[in-house]
Specification:
heterodimer, A: about 240 residues, mainly alpha, two-stranded antiparallel sheet, 12 helices, B: about 250 residues, about 75% helix, about 0% strand
Chain lengths: ~240, ~250
């Protein structure tokens, strides 16, 4: 497994996609900053301490980041098939389920890194604008929230990545499904029970963005565990399939 | 005539792609979600325009349609690049601009069809809601607005099509599409004339007949058209340069 992870790390270093994903993350931060410049009776949103760090997580998640992360994951998996390197890998032989698992672990790490990058941008902007209003406790809270966002978003979209790698039809499907999957989160957030149950919004219940009762947090954990279980089932059936 | 032939060829190529038909289903997402919201959470107060605002004029206009068209644009350009077909196409010879516009017309026709499906979906789901007073006047209003959205959005997506011509892969155009659509919906509250998508929204809601859109800013329709025009011209020039380099 360690060798597979090392090999994946070596491959991804040469991939321009990582830069494109970083570009998307930076652009999310820029766009949310722009939206903060709107004047509401003489007060701009961006002038409120903590606003930027709080709002960047849901907006980035509902519209851009999960789709980009799913695209990265499914691209890494599908490119072996597309570029015919899977034939050589089968000759070694490599266990395909393990290979997919290694790719998913790398996607998980990148998912956390993208969210931490978003945190870094929002934090430094907040610090530049109103340093004195920020307390260490608040910043650490946001850091924890962003870390959990990155981790849990990967768990929420893992069935899609696993399914796409199982189908081996194309990565477009992963992108489109994930985009709408995260987008529907906007609607799920209108109801308290649905908010805790729907995997994309469950992420925010766990990360602490939504104020939630213990039962809601447990419901969200169950929802994400269900996603993990589903992707595990798909990966396991892939092993049988080969 | 040559352009018509190219458009016909583009459609022949697309016939084999089932994914396009699958993407068409996303036209029904917002009507369905609006139906659920109005059935279980809110009330329309008997006003169909409130329902249509959610099903066809809201997130469909800002996010769903632009994202779908961006993916379509990337797919259209990626096909020829993937199989290294451009050399053969230039040998025929096909004019580079005709090639670009044939792709654009596919996007335009797809966009119109997408909005017609959205309109039909909105009508069907609104019938399922009991408390709506439906009449021909409102249905025609919906269809007219949907056609407007379909046509203008295709023009507003020209920059993405141009970016797709400069790239061999699909990942950058698709990522830019997501950011582009997101920026379009956010920038509405700041300045509607900077971004083609927000200018498009302004043109669609020009008479103030869509509740919640453009209530705050003074509307200048020529400026909105000018914004889309400038972005369109810039995109065509970019595509021209990019295609001239692909030999």
């Amino acid at each position: 497994m360690r060798t597979l992870l090392w090999a994946e790390y070596q491959k991804i270093r040469r991939l321009s996609f990582v830069w494109i994903a970083i570009f998307a993350t930076v652009m999310v931060a820029v766009i949310v900053f722009l939206s903060g410049l709107t004047d509401n009776d003489g007060i701009r949103d961006i002038d409120t301490a903590g606003w930027y760090m709080a709002v960047a997580q849901p907006l980035g998640t509902f519209f851009v980041l999960p789709a980009v992360i799913a695209l990265l994951g499914s691209y890494m998996i599908c490119r072996e098939e597309q570029e015919n390197t899977i034939e050589s890998l089968r000759l070694i032989p490599v266990n395909e389920a393990k290979l997919t698992l290694a790719k998913m672990i790398i996607t998980l790490i990148y998912s956390i890194l993208f969210y931490l990058l978003l945190f870094a941008i929002t934090f430094f902007t907040e610090a530049a604008l109103h340093f004195s209003d920020l307390s260490i406790g608040v910043v650490l809270n946001f850091l924890r929230a962003y870390f959990l966002d990155g981790l849990c978003i990967f768990l929420a979209i893992s069935p899609i990545i696993a399914w796409v790698s199982y189908m081996k039809k194309g990565y477009w499907i992963a992108l489109v499904i994930t985009e709408f999957y995260s987008f529907i989160g906007l609607f799920a957030s209108t109801s308290n029970t649905l908010k805790a149950l729907y995997p994309i919004t469950a992420v925010f219940t766990i990360s602490g963005y939504y104020e939630a009762s213990t039962s809601q947090v447990i419901l969200s954990c169950i929802s994400l565990m269900f996603c993990v279980g589903l992707s595990a089932v798909i990966l396991a059936s892939m092993k049988k399939y080969k | 005539m040559a352009l018509l032939k190219l458009i016909q060829i583009e459609f022949f190529k697309l016939r084999r792609r089932k994914f396009l038909w699958m993407m068409m289903f996303s036209a029904l997402i917002m009507p369905f979600l609006s139906y659920l919201l109005f059935k279980y959470a809110w009330s329309t107060g008997g006003d169909p325009v409130q329902f249509y605002k959610w099903s066809a004029f809201g997130l469909t206009l800002f996010i769903v349609l632009p994202v779908v068209l961006g993916i379509l644009s990337s797919m259209l350009m990626y096909n020829e690049n993937q199989y290294d077909m451009l050399k053969q196409i230039w040998i025929v010879p096909v004019s580079k601009m005709r090639y670009f516009f044939s792709k654009f017309f596919v996007v335009l026709i797809y966009s119109i069809c997408f909005m017609i499906v959205t309109a039909l979906g909105s009508v069907i789901f609104s019938i399922l809601l009991d408390d709506l007073a439906l009449d021909w006047h409102n249905t025609l209003f919906l269809i007219r607005k949907c056609l407007e959205i379909g046509i203008i959005t295709a023009f507003a997506m020209l920059p993405i099509l141009a970016i797709a011509t400069t790239q061999n892969g699909y990942i950058l155009p698709v990522s830019i599409t997501l950011v582009y659509a997101f920026l379009g919906s956010i920038i509405v509250s700041i300045n509607m004339y900077i971004h083609p998508l927000s200018s498009m929204a302004l043109i669609v809601a020009r008479n103030g007949d869509i509740p919640g859109l453009n209530d705050t800013q003074v509307i200048s329709i020529p400026l909105a058209f000018f914004s889309i025009f400038v972005w369109g011209i810039g995109s065509v020039l970019l595509a021209n340069v990019a295609l001239a380099r692909r030999k």
